[in-house]
Amino acid sequence: MSFHDQKILPAIRNMKQFDMFLDSPFLYGVLLDIHLGRLGGVISAARARGKKMFVHVDLIQGIKHDEYGAEFICQDMKPAGILSTRSSVIAKAKQKKVYAIQRMFLIDTSAMEKSIELVKKHRPDFIEVLPGVVPDLIREVKEKTGIPIFAGGFIRSEKDVEGALEAGASAVTTSDTELWKKYWE
């Protein structure tokens, strides 16, 4: 099952991609690599077009990537959700009633086990599994946590997207605009 009928969550790295997202049929997008001074305007522009933004707090320039920064973003910018690797940020997002998306880097078994422990403790709304091109790990994380999965990282083809979705991911995050276009429905 896809996330709000989206198989792809466009990951937006620059204003050209943001403009493309605004003109797309996608409802949700993920903001990456943005300066705090532009964040409010970008979220407002998206909202004016009926779009909803997830903000990757760890990649915002000009603000500390902690629960206080997350609180400011949630209260003042009012995004649809927050992505972070930090559990304290996830807890703050849940407190502020925005989607909480825990980013999980699967570099080895130990990292996965530690991440799963944190996820079970803080219960984010979604987990973004990176890299998203390992279907067996997507299945395993979903089975062990019971939390819906977004797959991201190294998504380079339709085969990668379909493999992640078949493994149980609710959506795939990618900044590859050619893949966005293939999934405009």
UniProtKB/TrEMBL annotation:
Any GO BP annotation: positive regulation of DNA-templated transcription
Pfam family, any one: G3P_antiterm
One of the record's GO molecular function terms: transcription antitermination factor activity, RNA binding
Listed InterPro entries: Aldolase_TIM, GlpP
Record key words, sorted: Glycerol metabolism, RNA-binding, Transcription, Transcription regulation
Signal peptide boundaries: none
Entry keyword annotation includes Transcription regulation: yes
Biological function: Regulates expression of the glpD operon. In the presence of glycerol 3-phosphate (G3P) causes antitermination of transcription of glpD at the inverted repeat of the leader region to enhance its transcription. Binds and stabilizes glpD leader mRNA.
Protein name: Glycerol uptake operon antiterminator regulatory protein
Organism: Bacillus sonorensis L12
Record lineage: Bacteria, Bacillati, Bacillota, Bacilli, Bacillales
